[in-house]
Amino acid sequence: MIEVLGKEFNGVLGCDYFSAYRRYHREFGVTLQFCLAHLIRDVKFLTTLPTRGTRHTGRGCARRCVRSLG
């Protein structure tokens, strides 16, 4: 990633949760925009888990996501 974007990338890097992106952010202070499709998928997954509190948290996150998208 350093070879392609360099150490002084000055944009916003759109990404999924791949660890290389987080490391690049940590080491060089690059701004990241995580993929909303991945976030939505992960929040939906929370609503399917067996623990009641986790499902509740997932539903709350889903409602806040929907409201923030307008």
Structure description:
This protein is mainly alpha-helical and 70 residues long. The protein is built from 4 helices and 2 strands, in the order H-E-H-E-H-H. A two-stranded parallel sheet has the order 1-2. Strand 1 (12-15), helix 2 (19-28) and strand 2 form a beta-alpha-beta unit. Helix 3 (36-46) packs antiparallel against helix 4. The longest helix has 18 residues, at 52-69. The model has no long low-confidence stretch (mean pLDDT 90).
Key phrases:
mainly alpha; 70 residues; two-stranded parallel ribbon; elongated; 11% strand
Unreliable runs: none
> pLDDT average, as an integer?
90
How many distinct beta strands? 2
State the order of secondary-structure elements, H for helix, E for strand.
HEHEHH
Shape: elongated
Relative helix content: 55-70%
Beta-strand residue fraction: 5-15%
Helical stretch tally: 4
Question: Structural class given helices, strands, pairing?
Answer: mainly alpha
> What is the rounded distance between the termini?
34 Å
Spatial order of the strands forming the largest sheet: 1-2
Main sheet properties: 2 strands, parallel
Radius of gyration: 16 Å
Layout of helices and strands, plus pairs?
Layout: H1 2-5, E1 12-15, H2 19-28, E2 31-34, H3 36-46, H4 52-69
Parallel strand pairs: 1-2
